[in-house]
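sry for the spam today, last one i promise. struct tokens for design, 264 residues
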């Protein structure tokens, strides 16, 4: 199992490079991160099957060989010794934005993750319904992505699957303001603790992937928890009232390794 050590924030962000994938992306939003004013959606003629046709900048959506999301089948994953994912998270003031594709919370600076000794600042977290990743073929009601970027522009995204169950109190600041219209932004009351949004069981899978929205840029370091968190049926319905289908279809692995940590 991969051990996560939640540390106090405040460590300076340093120049970091992508270890699992060498290219870099300058898209900071991950969801809704397309260039210009090109309209894209999750359905019809502007849906995922046509993203690459909407702009030359979106070519990777069809031509890329390391696209996300994928079906994480643990039977075919490689068990290796990985460095811990170190969390430099702390309760923070944040704002909530409905960007027309999802609802995202942007946190104040000072939150980061450390991967293999390299720092990635937390930019924002957002939601998809249903889940974009599948785990052993299973689809979940929702998925949360925490998007991080290093000083050179490389992205690292932490994915958390969400299933229906007991409400997780740490999500309360977000869902208290969830009913916002597209283009609307609100300051969240109180503080949001990103560490408290993560699962208690810390088995992780890592792989090299892409943004799951146009321009589908590759070179993104993905870390996916194999243990889901829970939201209540009411909370899940709150999000689905805004976006009941904002998930990209599963993409081919194309021989990419799925790395599961063997460290106790």
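last one done:
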């Amino acid at each position: 199992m991969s051990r996560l050590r939640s540390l106090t924030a405040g460590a300076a962000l340093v120049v970091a490079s992508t270890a699992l994938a060498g290219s870099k992306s300058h898209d900071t939003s991950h969801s809704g991160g397309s260039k210009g004013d090109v309209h894209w959606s999750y359905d019809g003629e502007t849906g995922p099957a046509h993203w690459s046709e909407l702009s030359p900048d979106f070519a990777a959506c069809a031509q890329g060989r390391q696209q996300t999301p994928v079906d994480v089948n643990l039977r075919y994953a490689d068990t290796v010794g990985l460095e811990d994912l170190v969390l430099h998270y702390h309760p923070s003031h944040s704002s909530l934005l409905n960007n027309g594709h999802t609802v995202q919370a942007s946190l104040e600076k000072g939150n980061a993750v450390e991967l293999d000794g390299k720092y990635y600042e937390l930019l924002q977290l957002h939601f998809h319904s249903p889940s974009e990743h599948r785990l052993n073929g299973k689809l979940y009601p929702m998925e949360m992505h925490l998007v991080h970027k290093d000083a050179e522009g490389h992205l690292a995204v932490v994915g958390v699957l969400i299933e229906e169950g007991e409400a997780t109190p740490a999500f309360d600041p977000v869902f208290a303001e969830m009913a916002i219209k597209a283009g609307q932004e609100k300051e969240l009351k109180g503080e949001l603790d990103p560490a408290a949004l993560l699962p208690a069981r810390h088995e992780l899978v890592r792989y090299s992937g892409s943004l799951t929205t146009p321009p589908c840029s590759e070179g993104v370091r993905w870390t996916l928890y194999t243990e889901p968190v829970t939201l209540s049926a009411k909370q899940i319905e709150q999000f689905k009232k805004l976006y009941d289908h904002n998930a990209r279809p599963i993409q081919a692995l194309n021989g990419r390794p799925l790395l599961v940590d063997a460290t106790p």
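The radius of gyration is 17 Å. ok im logging off now
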